[in-house]
Amino acid sequence: MSLVDQERENASNQMFLVTFAICGLVAATLVATVVLFLVRKHSKSREKLARLSQDDPSFEASKEYQVGCTFHTVVTASVIYFEFE
């Protein structure tokens, strides 16, 4: 193997490593972005549920939320009941 061939092979190997590193960084950035988005969304939904489930009479959405849950439960139960009759 000549010196020129060895230099080409080394350059090819270096290019492969640089490409691999860049792809890894892009993938890691995408994964981190998705994870942060999901954590933020989950946190917001937990806060919303905590606010909706408060028994504060000045917080009117609490009653609406409870009525909505009750209605959903009744409708779901009746649909299941009629499907198996």
Report on the structure:
By secondary structure, the protein is mostly helical. It is built from 2 helices and no strands. It is 86% helix and 0% strand. The protein is rod-shaped. The mean pLDDT is 77. The chain has 2 domains: 1-46; 53-85.
Number of strands: 0
* Strand proportion: under 5%
Largest sheet: none
Q: Termini distance? A: 82 Å
Sheet/helix structural class: mainly alpha
- The total count of helices amounts to 2
Q: How many discrete domains?
A: 2
In the predicted model, the low-confidence regions spanning at least 5 consecutive residues are: none
Please tell me what the overall shape is: rod-shaped
Overall mean pLDDT stands at: 77
Classify the helix fraction into a percent range.
over 70%
SSE run: HH
Rg from C-alpha positions? Answer: 29 Å
Summarize the structure.
With 85 residues, the protein is mostly helical. It folds into two domains: 1-46; 53-85. The protein has helices at 3-52, 61-83.
